[in-house]
Every structure is written in C-alpha cells, then in structure tokens.
Write a structure and sequence with these properties.
By secondary structure, the chain is mainly alpha-helical. The chain is built from eight helices and three strands.
Amino acid sequence: MYIVICNPHGNTVEPEAAAFLASASGIRGIAAAAIVAPDHVTWQQGNAVVEVCMPGIPAALCQDISAAEKWLRDVMLANPHGATVRQKQVLKLVEKRFSHKEIAFKLGCKKRTVETHLYELQHRFGVTSVRDLIEAARQTGLLPLLNGSSS
C-alpha cells in the first residue's frame, strides 16, 4: 500500500494521525509514504513523522500533491508489487533458506507472521509456491538475480 499524507491547513499534523502512524497497525502494510508539507512548520513536523513513525519505510516530504504523486509513481515502478520492508526482509531470509521459525526468531515476530507475509507476497505475485515467489521476485528486481542468471 502506498499513502499520501496531506494537510490542507498547512499548519500542523494532527496528533491523532501521527499517533496512528506511530502504532504498529498504522504502518502495517505500507510500502511507501509521501507527506505533503507546503510550509516550514509542516516540513519540520513531516520530517519528525518520517523519522520517528516510519523507520525503514521509504518516505518523502513534498511541497505539493503533484510532487507527492510523482514520487510515489517512481517508487511504485521500482516496487511494482508494493512489498513492505518487512515482507522484503522475510523474502530475503527465505531465499537464504532459513526456516520460518528461524526467520521469526531473527525478526522478533511469530512464525505465523512470517507465513502471512509469504502468503501475501505469493498472492501479490500470483504464484502458489515459495520457489515460484523467489523466482518472480528475482525477475522483477525485488531480489537480485543469481550469478550467471539472465533476465
């Protein structure tokens, strides 16, 4: 999921919105976020939201909505399936042949969460096996091609 956070009043970021983004459910599933910050005050607040609320998620501060849309389009082209940072982490570890239990331990989550990430990725890529998922991720650039592989 890609989001644009826009403040039409141009003065403050609503505390409720910042609190939601700071929560685990607030950033769940977000692949990238653009924050429209037309003035100095919202620019500072938007920067705080990016640094504090969305660590590890590609984010940009933009002067206006058209700049936000352009930035998100560019990000979407680089990540056409909208994989989240966590999903990419899981995928990279699966590619390295870690078990679901080992991945869960490394990422500090439950085994079921790892399985859910893989299920969602398989759905996004339209494949039914982890082997096919890894191959599709390589072909789209989400994972690097193996040495000697060609696209």
